[in-house]
């Protein structure tokens, strides 16, 4: 019958638009490269800065981002993209150079956080969806003009005996797909982030099960919304035991659970997987990423990092708001970037850092950006 369920897909993106999206996505996750997530909202920066005794002012946020963005050419081989927060996209270095120009001149791709944070899903056990679709197309068009080529949108899911509910999985998958579709229409590569929080005492198997269900729902929604997968990146949690799970697992077990979950649910067509660090210590996040890349299963996508806390904790600690510490802080960031660049290729042989700041857990209960 002519009224078949899906006669064809109406035209969405031209061949040129698709090529541009795929080229951007591939550049970000070129071998040995990952993403610096420096897109903490003003509220998240308050937590980071208060922790080191620094007041959360616009100028202090600018000074801190300058520490990260002034890293030298050593990061060119290991950082493919930097995610900005709106405020940072329009800030300049001390010498007046726009941060966006500093990053782009290095051949690093600029990204922008475009979601507007989580809101409660009424009638659920404290589950959430993420808002920010209104006006998103116009914002994406402006950000593209202002130098951004990719975006991030974070959804949050929780593991407990009653969650994630079917509602939260369906709703968050759909809102991620709407966001992705809008980004692609504006030449922006969407990073799809369905973060499953590490809170809870569940074991590795339960996290793997939930991750598979969440990712399956996400890719069904992306298909329904005609999203061009080659022009997307996935930013998932690693499959780990809950933070208060009494059982300890090796990096190899975490890697096997993670790659198994991804292989079961994530199409080979996507450009890459860029894990969030989710409160793991800097060293844990590097060792686990390395193990993931050495996991003895076929892995059809680049598997790399898009770390916030696990690229910045030592740098923040070294800085403490003191001008004379700025270059030492930059060195700490470069060190983590280089280590993660190795881990993204399965070539990190370290693991000796567990005693210092790098080994400190960065876990925060019910973490919000
Ligand atoms: P973490 O690596 O600190 O989890 O943050 C990454 C991120 O951008 C979450 O949205």
Helix-strand blueprint:
Blueprint: H1 15-28, E1 34-38, H2 42-51, H3 58-69, E2 79-84, H4 86-89, H5 99-105, E3 109-113, E4 118-120, E5 128-130, H6 136-145, E6 150-157, H7 166-185, E7 189-196, H8 204-224, E8 233-234, H9 251-265, E9 272-275, H10 282-293, E10 303-307, H11 309-319, H12 326-343
Parallel strand pairs: 1-2, 1-10, 2-3, 3-6, 6-7, 7-8, 8-9, 9-10
Antiparallel strand pairs: 4-5
The structure holds 1,3-dihydroxyacetonephosphate.
1,3-dihydroxyacetonephosphate (13P) is lined by residues 37, 154, 193, 276-278, 306-310, 369.
Catalytic activity: beta-D-fructose 1,6-bisphosphate = D-glyceraldehyde 3-phosphate + dihydroxyacetone phosphate
Keywords: Glycolysis, Lyase, Schiff base
Organism: Scleropages formosus
Characterise this structure.
The chain has about 375 residues and is α/β, with parallel strands linked by helices. It is about 40% helix and about 15% strand. The protein has twelve helices and ten strands. The protein has helices at about 15-30, 40-50, 60-70, 85-90, 100-105, 135-145, 165-185, 205-225, 250-265, 280-295, 310-320, 325-345; strands spanning about 35-40, 80-85, 110-115, 120, 130, 150-155, 190-195, 235, 270-275, 305. Strands 1-2-3-6-7-8-9-10 form an eight-stranded parallel β-barrel, surrounded by eight helices. The protein has a two-stranded antiparallel ribbon with strand order 4-5. Strand 7 (about 190-195), helix 8 (about 205-225) and strand 8 form a beta-alpha-beta unit. Helix 7 crosses helix 8, helix 8 (about 205-225) runs parallel beside helix 9 (about 250-265) and helix 9 packs across helix 10. The termini are far apart. The model has no long low-confidence stretch (mean pLDDT about 95). The structure holds 1,3-dihydroxyacetonephosphate. 1,3-dihydroxyacetonephosphate binds next to strand 10 and helix 11.
């Amino acid at each position: 019958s002519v009224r078949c369920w899906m006669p064809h897909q109406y035209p969405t993106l031209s061949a040129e638009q698709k090529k541009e999206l795929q080229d951007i996505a591939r550049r970000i996750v070129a071998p040995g490269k990952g993403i610096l997530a420096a897109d903490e909202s003003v509220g998240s920066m308050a937590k980071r800065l208060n922790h080191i005794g620094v007041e959360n002012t616009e100028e202090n946020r600018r000074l801190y981002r300058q520490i990260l963005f002034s890293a030298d050419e050593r990061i060119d081989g290991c950082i493919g993209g930097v995610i900005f927060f709106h405020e940072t996209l329009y800030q300049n270095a001390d010498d007046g150079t726009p941060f966006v120009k500093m990053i782009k001149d290095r051949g690093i791709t600029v990204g922008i956080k475009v979601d507007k944070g989580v809101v409660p899903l009424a009638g659920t056990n404290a589950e959430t969806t993420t808002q920010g679709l209104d006006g998103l197309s116009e914002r994406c068009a402006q950000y593209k003009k202002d130098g951004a080529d990719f975006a991030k949108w974070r959804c949050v899911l929780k593991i407990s005996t009653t969650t994630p509910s079917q509602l939260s999985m369906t709703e968050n998958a759909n809102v991620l797909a709407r966001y992705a579709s809008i980004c692609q229409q504006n030449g922006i590569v969407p990073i799809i982030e369905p973060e499953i929080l590490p809170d809870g005492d569940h074991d590795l198997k339960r996290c793997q099960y939930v991750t598979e269900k969440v990712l399956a729902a996400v890719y069904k929604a992306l298909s329904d919304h005609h999203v061009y997968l080659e022009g997307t990146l996935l930013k998932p949690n690693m499959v780990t035991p809950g933070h208060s799970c009494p059982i300890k697992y090796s990096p190899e077990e975490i890697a096997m659970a993670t790659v198994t979950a991804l292989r079961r649910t994530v199409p080979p067509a996507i450009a890459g997987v860029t894990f969030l660090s989710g409160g793991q210590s800097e060293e844990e996040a590097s060792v686990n990423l390395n193990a993931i890349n050495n996991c003895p299963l076929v892995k059809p996508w680049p598997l790399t990092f898009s770390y916030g806390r696990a690229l910045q904790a030592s740098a923040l600690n070294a800085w403490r708001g003191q001008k004379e510490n700025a270059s030492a802080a930059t060195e700490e960031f470069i060190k983590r970037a280089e280590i993660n660049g190795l881990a993204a290729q399965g070539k990190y042989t370290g693991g000796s850092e567990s005693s210092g700041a790098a080994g400190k857990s960065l876990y925060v209960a019910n973490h919000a950006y």
